[in-house]
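Cast an eye over this sequence plus tokens and walk me through the fold:

***
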Amino acid sequence: MRIATYNVEWFFKLFDDAGTLLRDDGWSGRWNVTRAAQIDALARVFQALDADAILVVEAPDTSRGRDGTVALRNFAVHAGLRARDALMGFPNTTQQELMLLYDPDVITARHDPLTTGAPQFDGEFAIDLDIDATEDLVRFSKPPLEAALETPVGPLRLIGAHVKSKAPHGAVTDADVMRLAIANRRKQLAQCIWLRRRVAAHLDAGEALIVAGDLNDGPGLDEYEALFGRSGLEIVLGTAEPAERRLYDPHAAEALQSKLSAAPTTARFFKRHENRYLQALLDYIMVSPALRPRADKWRIWHPFDDPECWERKDLHGALLTASDHFPVTLDLI
């Protein structure tokens, strides 16, 4: 069975309010990419993945007059995918939903938010962010999707997450950059602590767990990491916990092993003011100790680093056109 996570940039811009694909020459949200070109590229990528379940990060929005699950199902039909049913958790107001696209002939899925271990993800989490002896209330702008799955490898719990970005968007001066970067990192770490508490509850219950999605974090991504001691990635993985309570992702383990050597990457952004590309490891599929023996293969579908993605020119081009992130897959046996 194959599980995937894929952050699709500006997916919602490819649909009208009825959830119909806008496969035309109008511009998508991607730089210099038409809607038709992005739709065709996404179809090719999803077809190549051939996954039983895909966590779609930044899925089409559900809002007044729009239903992202309808849009995602329409895309699956257009692309001829086995994974043709869609599950959404708590909607949000960012136009970037978290949804699970899955094959209903292989998997049954239901949204199953819990309150054990931490507040429900659409609520508030109390934590002292700035060490002033006063609790701050943290919210997820994109509440994680909690799903209960029945699969060929047994029952699974899935948490799909898109944790807050640490980028100082809107900063003008150097002082603004520093202030916003530190504030955003505090919120990002708080969300990861919240997420870890829910992970711990699932581990306590002895459940097979997958945590997937975009953590907007990895070792060495900004100069403020040392100020806080640990990255959000390390918090969610539980690297300070005993081995039997840690989650595992081999790409995360490789990146954390040495911050001096080259690490895997799952995203590629063009920095216009520097005229260069920045690559980062942001997307993960983490498994609980109970699932690790069944985890057969992790793969980042990177157009330059994965040999098949490099050699297949159609797939290579599609990956670069479809999104600024690349899919990650995990095969379970």
About this structure: The chain has a mean pLDDT of 92.
